[in-house]
């Protein structure tokens, strides 16, 4: 889903030399070149689990071990496995009123199955239920749960249930299960559905469990003969019923999550184009579009609609062949304020490049592989948003991709906290926007995939990871942990640290840099603080661009695995300046870049710990001489904050009165001098 308003590799010198900090220290004459504001924010950390590598796990494993449990949903819905849905309903372009029959084929998963449960809002009236051929006219309700007592069945038994129902469901709001609206521009009324995350029950009898995909689905839509009705799969038949009504018979043989079943109905015209992914060797995939039936509509939107073809061909190359290639891809235009990735036929509110690429990307991430819990919406929205970036990078060029990614990263850093993973306690029917938080689920979700691509540092392995994930979890559901393990299998990396800090953790890194020329090497002292205390360190590779005095440059890749690191990099020319993350692979704020001149060097003169610190720091002297020493603490602007004489081997400094920020601690005994960075949280 994409909501408006929320929202190859460059040449890299793959080398780095590090020295334990501090091995070489310096007395600096400081020149502040760049200073930005620092943001520090303390928040409560949410716990998460790491033991969730469950390939094609069963639904009961999901419910019992780690996943979000709908506290308004009857536990009886977990006692069967849906195999097939058949919706045979009458719909209108002028209202949300609907009715008809829904048939559910399912296999029983427990012994002594005596309660058939499904979800349907009370505003829709059930006239009868036929269960395994027996007609029922009474049942119980528990909120939106319908509970029918049936003769006992046992594990591996099957049943067929037919629910006849109808009425006017609730409507209004972005997440309404069904909506009717009028396009004033085109003079058309349109009705469409949007069931994500919990509102399929607002328009049809359903089991709303992410890990229970139906193996196939039919959607038969009866409507006025002046309308066309779109849905998933193939339009196998259009029947003129002879009474001013037509029935559109859509059938899909692919597994499908409950919330991806949909329809849209209006006075449409059909516009078809074809994509030819390389893997099909000249064969094609239908891209079927239902557009407003107006003389100017196609003319005004044709270019943007046609852009679907190269996108589909690109994603088929990068991810795997379009997963529903035996049926189609397509769009239904509506008045939705964004788009919704309904399987094989996205519901659209417009035709922007980002919207079209996003909803198409969902066919792989969200539809073929669906998030196993709403906590792991990253599997859907993070990767679909990264599909936006890839479409820009590969189809529109590197600069277009950079613009998209920088805007994405800036939105992520517009606030200090927030995790991509959503703690189950935050997911409720009244807090749906937390699932679809544009800054976190979408933008940070995409930005950390870009960081992972940089961390892997091999595009072949990165895209092999995406392809293997698609193949392994095709037609099923997966968590962020599942993706992590696929990435580890393909790359050979241990990614616990990456997911701890970027996926489950909060915030972003903030850098203060000191650099200077030291003979035939450039020394970079890199201090990392973070925007929250929840994630105190981002263990990461970060690029530095070195610009030389002859206007040439090179990019070096350095490993920041501690808050304070010193890197000594051999060079054959004089460095005139440095830049952090020049190609925007990672997202961070650079608080300061400072260049210094050497006046004295003292190896391992003193250490400061803890660093960063909230209140106090201990200065410990490596060389136990008895010389009187002078300790000074400066702010990054050069203001002297503290000065005192020191004779002890250790000194405890009280920093409670100091504002949060970066400071320089200078120590000198008249012979040896040293200066180090201290971060006050």
Structure characterization notes:
The protein is built from eleven helices and 39 strands. By secondary structure, the protein is an alpha+beta fold. It has three domains: 2-45 and 508-680, Immunoglobulin-like, CATH 2.60.40; 68-371, tricorn interacting facor f3 domain (Immunoglobulin-like); 392-503, Neutral Protease, domain 2 (Orthogonal Bundle). The strands form nine sheets. An eight-stranded mixed beta sheet has the order 8-7-11-5-4-14-17-16, with no helix packed on it. Strands 1-22-23-21-20-19 form a six-stranded mixed beta sheet. Helix 3 (308-318) runs parallel beside helix 4 (353-361). The longest helix has 19 residues, at 378-396. The protein is elongated and about 100 Å long. 46% of the residues are buried. Residues 5-69 and 598-604 have low confidence and may be disordered.
Count of domains = 3
The CATH class of the largest domain, by name, is: Mainly Beta
Low-pLDDT windows of residues: 5-69, 598-604
Proportion of beta-strand residues: 35-45%
Second-tier CATH architecture of the largest domain: Sandwich
How large, in whole angstroms, is the Cα Rg?
30 Å
Distance between the termini: 38 Å
β-strand number:
39
Mean pLDDT: 87
The biggest beta sheet is recorded as:
8 strands, mixed
User: What structural class do the secondary elements suggest?
Assistant: alpha+beta
